[in-house]
Specification:
With 323 residues, the chain is of the alpha/beta class. It has two domains: 178 residues, NAD(P)-binding Rossmann-like Domain (Rossmann fold, 3-Layer(aba) Sandwich), CATH 3.40.50.720; 127 residues, N-(1-d-carboxylethyl)-l-norvaline Dehydrogenase, domain 2, CATH 1.10.1040.10. The chain is built from twelve helices and ten strands. Strands 1, 2, 3, 4, 5, 6, 7, 8, 9 and 10 form a ten-stranded mixed beta sheet that branches. The chain is globular.
Length: 323
């Protein structure tokens, strides 16, 4: 039998995504502790986590534990690692002295590098995950769900599990108990690159224009920009050993414009709050790998540079926050 029981689930970096999955698991009766910022934790401690599920038309109050400290990790056997990619290495180092030796870690993050970064700092097994959810931290203690919620999981080449298939199936069953669909991929790197491509196509444009996906889909020049950008990412992915298929990617882009049409990207949400985004790990990594492999990436470079230019001015704002 597997060593994992999932009796206590801890969410590190409980922002919009982490709080949503933590809330859904707690709603299903699982013991969950959210680890996040002070204002969020205080609101949850005082009044519970307010959850507004897409289509429900009402708020639910979810009872669960919350903390600003890492000490709850000591008795957690599943850790959902949900910090921004920019904070991955720092957070992995910080939890090294707290995470139980037999804990399982799931990286619920954007980008294609996080699993290897976490594995370099921790001895525990790390499950790479790809997240497809539209959610928003509308206020401290208040999560709004705008659509979807499924996960794709797989194994990394360095996965430290004796029975990986059994563990992955246990995770599928755990999340199924919370009405969250989890699919197992035989090549999760393809899934990660596919999600990265989608992020590159939507995030920077949504952030710079502060518009929802459905509005982007109505502008022909934006669709043409996305099409050129997609070709760049596919070429870089191929140079990195991952094959992506343009027709399948374009279908996914169209689907997201429809199923998440009212959503603004996480980059847009960060920029609206004068916070640094994950752009270095989205279009930025495509640019870096393009330089490494000699693949031109002018559209990704332009969007990356424009977001960085806007972010450079954040420090002058009274609302600026590093968090």
């Amino acid at each position: 039998m597997s060593i994992y029981t999932f009796k206590h689930i801890a969410v590190v970096g409980a922002g919009a995504v982490g709080s949503f999955y933590g809330a859904m698991l707690a709603r299903a009766g699982h013991k969950v502790t959210l680890i996040g910022r002070l204002a969020h934790v205080q609101a949850i401690s005082n009044s519970g986590l307010k959850l507004n599920l897409s289509g429900a038309g009402r708020d639910e109050i979810i009872s669960l534990e919350a903390s600003t400290e890492l000490s709850p990790l000591r008795n957690a056997d599943l850790i959902l690692f949900c910090v921004k990619s920019t904070d991955t290495e720092t957070t992995a180092k910080a939890i090294a002295n707290y995470a139980a030796p037999n804990a399982l870690i799931m990286s619920l993050q954007n980008g294609v590098e996080n699993t290897s970064i976490i594995e370099a700092q921790l001895a525990q097994a790390v499950i790479p995950s790809v997240v497809y959810v539209a959610t928003e931290l509308a206020a401290p203690g208040y999560v709004k769900h705008h659509g979807r919620g499924e996960l794709v999981i797989g194994t990394s080449k360095n996965l430290r599990l004796k029975k990986p298939d059994e563990t992955l199936n246990q995770l599928v069953n755990l999340f199924a108990s919370a009405n969250i669909v989890v699919n197992i991929s035989q090549d999760v790197r393809v899934e990660q690159w596919s999600k990265l491509l989608i992020n590159c196509a939507f995030n920077a444009i949504s952030g710079l224009a502060q518009v929802q996906y459905q509005k982007m889909a109505r502008v022909e020049s934006i669709l043409e920009t996305q099409s050129t950008l997609i070709k760049e990412v596919i070429a870089v992915a191929l140079a990195d050993g991952v094959t992506l298929y343009e027709p399948k990617v374009m279908q996914a882009i169209t689907q997201i414009s429809e199923t998440m049409g009212s959503q603004k990207s996480s980059t847009a949400q960060d920029m609206a709050r004068f916070r640094p985004s994950e752009i270095d790990h989205l279009n930025g990594i495509v640019v870096r790998l393009g330089l490494k492999y000699g693949v031109p990436t002018p559209v990704n470079q332009t969007l990356f540079a424009l977001v960085k230019l806007v972010e450079q001015n954040f420090r002058a704002s009274p609302d600026y926050s590093e968090a």
